[in-house]
Amino acid sequence: MPGASHLELLTGNRLVALGALDAGCRFFSGYPITPSSEIYQTMMGELPARGGLALAAPDEITALAYCVGASLTGQKAMTATSGPGWCLMIETVQYAVMTETPVVIAVVQRLGPSTGGATQGAQGDVLLTQYCTSGSYTIPVLAPSNCRECYELTQAAFYWSERLRTPVILLSDKEVGMTSESVNLDSLNRWPVVERKPFSNNSARFRTYACDCLEDPPNFAAVGGRARVVATGSVHDQEGRLRKNAPEVLELLIHLQAKIDAHAAEIVLVEEEPCEDADLLIVSYGISARAGRAATRQLRAEGRRAAFLQIKSLFPVPKREIVRAAAGSKRVLVVEENLTGQYASVLEPIVGSDRLVRVNGIGHMITPGEILDRVETA
Amino acid sequence: MSTPYVKRDSTLPYCKGCGHGVVLRALSEALEKLEIPPAELAIVTDIGCVGLADAQFATPHTIHTTHGRSTAFAGGLSLADSVLGEGKLKPVVLIGDGGAMIGLNHLVNAALLNLDVTVLVHNNFLFGMTGGQNSAFTPLEFVTSTTQAGNTTPPLDLAQCLLAARAPFVARQLATDRNLADVLAQAISHRGFAIVEILELCTAYATRWNALTGAQLKQVADRCGFQLGILRAEQRPMFADSYREMAARVRPKAPRSIRVGGSHARLAQPVEVILAGTAGERVQTAALLLGQAAMQAGLHVTLKSDNPVTQGTGFSVSEVILSEQEILFTGIEQPDVIIIVSGDGLSELERNGIFERVQQETLILADTSLALPDVPGRVVRLPLRKTAGVNLAALVGVVRWIEMSRILPLEAFWEALEAQFGAIATPLKAKLSQNTGTEPVTVPTN
């Protein structure tokens, strides 16, 4: 690493915390759980001295509810957990979806189900993080594969959370979160720091959920400010009043999905290693993307026409990029560390089941060798 | 105030005689008396009939939340406002007995933290909105739709529970109390966490199935052994006070950068190192210093550690990869070096099947006391545990390997040691450099 000037040996979890701080996160509430605890500890160590607030919650439900409450006053807020804690947060993440409250949740996956294996990695919460709302509303999910991406995607998470007023999940895992890597902090990419679009028309009466169009979030006013906020997790009209099945109410439910769909193309984060006339595409994300990339390079070194696609923004699903990357490939290998091929099930209708090959495993990181074996046998 | 918080002539969405309406009127009266600017007030409602109350307010912020969680959301509002904002916002939580039980943890935490939140628990002894089911607050012998032969479980004494949680203001009142508005005003104006449990009767279910009227609320309370009135009104520092004081004492941690200056041996392939020992014997520190030294020498590094769930006993195993190129796969497939400094570490490696992956070229650097399995590889025995004591054995192992392999200059390791240990680095270095008089012994393998 010649010319590097600011090198540190840091874990992915620490880079998540540093990314959050640089994104302007001012509020963190956490509860200890392996393998995410270092994010919590770092924020507890750093936020007080930087003018922010970090505190211990008595459980994960409270942790996220404190964050949502803080976000309602206009603060950028975050929590971090793992599978068992995420289960407890699902009730409150739905509230954040419904009330259009920005919040970032780092889910550092471990082996499940239940308490599973605290110190064992896994990519088994992909569908649990995505399909956690009644109504299956799309929650942006970003999956880093290394320290650099932990930093950058955490900032991206804040960016989209604030811009679209939605919870965003940073989906890491034990091996990404707890492995230290040599990182050049000066070379990390910074995301623009955004603020929610404020309600500013002093002559107009503020209506909490009034949007200019279905595709954009409403303007924001803080609880505690002059404009009166009427927030609710129940079906509501633009004023925030509980209404049953009125057209305006249903339109707002449609809006919750439409604002994500409308920005899906902008949210896309993928990294390709293309190959001319590729007949094989290896698709992966998170920790498995590293093995996928290594396997692809090995194949290329052997003269094989293999391309690689790392998906960083798992949801909304970057369909166009996947279709484009898979065009011409006879086989599309989807590599992920879970039992059934969770993201493969999402990709199957896009690439077609006849050419989709699942490369799965649990209990250990999928190795480049395992992928290469599947290339030969599948 | 010219505009009342809840209009005096408004029709409330509650049954005739329901205590919820009485409490709501008393709350409005209390707020008017206190003249709290509506912008500085947040009415936070829970689920149940009580959750309809927010719609009755025309001027303050209202937040209608999920079942039992109202206090936690209100806590978030208060935390952010009191520490990061202007510290003017007063959240008032309206919650029922069902919500108080499902969210008991939130009440206890808000009380312990002493958040600036007032909670009004509308305790009508049952779940009204869902059909009169019993709650954790239902008195003994009380008939509900789910205790048709009379309740047999004693009710929770919430006020005592919150007193135990060090809530600085705790009161229990009857909905029929004439001074209810005054007590609510006192609770809301209390600086810090305040809870008022208000006993009421659900006219849809409680009075239908139990021979009771509002006039008998006091008897119900007595039979439950509930104390009435203001049970505590004390001052203690709020969370925001203590937090600000703490925050003023701390400084951000200065990042410790690694200066790249050294050189390293030419590595055709990444070098995979396993360091195995006993938890608490600085195995992870040794691995960290090796990683930092390698970075200083210009290499890419990954480092991961494993130990049993309990942090201070049993094995401790660290894996370090050193590479000239960016490291993609971070697992160790075929270790180049295994440094074993204790029996705990050896057992874990055997359990993990590491030795099955050992090659002829693998260097195994082990303490002389250990009985190694028969494996290929170059075995080097050294008195790692005796050189400078067991707590430095892992560090000794790393130093010896750097000396032997010459992959990176030992100076880089000493720099990392100094950065980590400061003043004590010098005596540590002396200990680690001790010549034990034992030359490395290479044992031929079978």
Could you provide a short overview of the structure?
The complex is a heterodimer of chains A (378) and B (446). Chain A is an alpha/beta fold. Chain A contains 13 helices and 15 strands.
Structure description:
The complex is a heterodimer of chains A (about 375) and B (about 450). A 7-stranded mixed sheet of chain A has the order 3-2-4-5-7-6-13, with helices on both faces. In chain A, strands 10-12-11-14-15 form a 5-stranded mixed sheet, with helices on both faces. In chain A, helix 12 (about 340-350) links the parallel strand 14 (about 330-335) and strand 15. Chain A folds into 2 domains: about 5-185, Thiamin diphosphate (ThDP)-binding fold, Pyr/PP domains (Rossmann fold, 3-Layer(aba) Sandwich), CATH 3.40.50; about 270-375, Rossmann fold (3-Layer(aba) Sandwich). Chain A has helices spanning about 10-20, 35-45, 60-70, 85-100, 125-130, 145-165, 175-180, 245-260, 265, 285-300, 320-325, 340-350, 370-375, and strands at about 5-10, 25-30, 55, 75-80, 105-110, 140, 165-175, 180-185, 230, 270-275, 280-285, 305-310, 315, 330-335, 355-360. Helices cover about 40% and strands about 20% of the residues of chain A. Chain A has 13 helices and 15 strands. Chain B is an alpha/beta fold and about 450 residues long. Chain B contains 15 helices and 16 strands. In chain B, the strands form 3 sheets. In chain B, strands 2-1-3-4-8-7-9 form a 7-stranded mixed sheet, with helices on both faces. A 7-stranded mixed sheet of chain B has the order 11-12-10-13-14-15-16. A two-stranded antiparallel sheet of chain B has the order 5-6. The model of chain B is unreliable at about 440-445 (pLDDT under 50). Chains A and B meet through strand 1, helix 3, helix 4, strand 8 and strand 9 of A and strand 2, helix 2, helix 4, helix 9 and helix 10 of B. Strand 9 of chain A pairs parallel with strand 2 of chain B.
